[in-house]
Structures are given as structure tokens and as C-alpha cells.
Specification:
With 145 residues, the chain is α+β, with helices and mostly antiparallel strands. It has one domain (14-137). The chain has helices at residues 13-55, 63-76, 79-83, and strands spanning 85-98, 103-114, 128-137. Strands 1-2-3 form a three-stranded antiparallel beta sheet. Helix 1 (13-55) packs antiparallel against helix 2. The protein starts with 12 loop residues before the first helix and ends in an 8-residue tail after the last strand.
């Protein structure tokens, strides 16, 4: 019985289609989704960091205004448009540990929702919600409240 062999020229074009399919569907698209989710997470962390920093240097009545200004700066940076991020809440709270001097910490809780950039059929991918909590020492001591 004579055995069939591949020619020396290769002729492996029949294997190219399934290999590309496996690379795209099993490796490339999930890798892109993971990178996208990582960028969205970093984008939300950046807003929380900016808000915590700005809330720590203002007096208590203007903390929410400082966080809103940081939100506007974050929106103008283009990061949320690139990552498909939307703000759900950005709430500052001042925790005073020493009432006599007004020393304490500022806690800012930020909730961000990231929309998926691609939908894969038969794979449920909904929006991802991330919650961040930043804490920073009060730099502007506010004794009167």
C-alpha cells in the first residue's frame, strides 16, 4: 500500500482557516476584552484618586463641589469616552478623628460602570461596575465643620 505524503512545497492552506479562527475567537478577542476592562478599571481609579486628593484640601461644605470639578476634568480628558465609562456616584465623607484640631481623613467612594466595547454572540457580557474607596489625610483642617 502506498502512503500519501505532503509535497515539499507545503500546501497547508487547508489548515490556515481553522488556525486563524482559533487565534481570533479563542485568543485575540478575549485578550482585547481583558485589556479593555483593565483600562476601564484604571480610568475609574484615576477619577477616585483625583477626587480624594481634591476633597482633602478643601473645607467640608465645598467637598462635593471639588469632587464635581474633578469629574468635569475627568470627562474633558477623554478617558471615559475611550473606556465607555459612566459615573454612578462620587461621594466624599470627612471622618474627623480629633475634634479639637479637626484632624482626620477624607473618604471618597466612587462607583463607575464600564460598557463592553464588543459583544460576542452566546457569551453574556454585561456592563461591569467597579467601586473604589480612597482615603487621604485632611490637609485643610476644618474645626467648625
Amino acid at each position: 500500500m502506498k502512503r500519501l505524503r505532503r509535497s515539499r512545497q507545503g500546501n497547508a492552506i487547508a489548515e490556515f482557516g481553522p488556525a486563524i479562527f482559533i487565534l481570533l475567537i479563542m485568543i485575540l478577542i478575549p485578550m482585547m476584552v481583558l485589556i479593555y476592562v483593565g483600562l476601564g478599571f484604571a480610568c475609574g481609579w484615576y477619577l477616585n484618586y483625583m477626587s480624594t486628593r481634591s476633597a482633602a484640601v478643601v473645607k467640608t461644605p465645598t467637598m462635593q463641589q471639588a469632587c464635581d470639578l474633578q469629574y468635569q476634568a475627568w470627562m474633558q480628558s477623554g478617558l471615559p469616552y475611550f473606556c465607555g465609562a459612566t459615573l454612578i456616584s462620587n461621594t466624599p465623607i470627612r471622618n474627623v478623628t480629633n475634634a479639637a484640631t479637626g484632624q482626620g481623613f477624607v473618604d471618597v467612594t466612587t462607583v463607575i460602570q464600564i460598557q463592553p466595547f464588543v459583544s460576542i454572540p452566546m457569551v453574556p457580557m454585561g456592563p461591569w461596575t467597579f467601586t473604589y474607596k480612597g482615603e487621604r489625610p485632611i490637609e485643610e483642617y476644618d474645626i467648625e465643620g
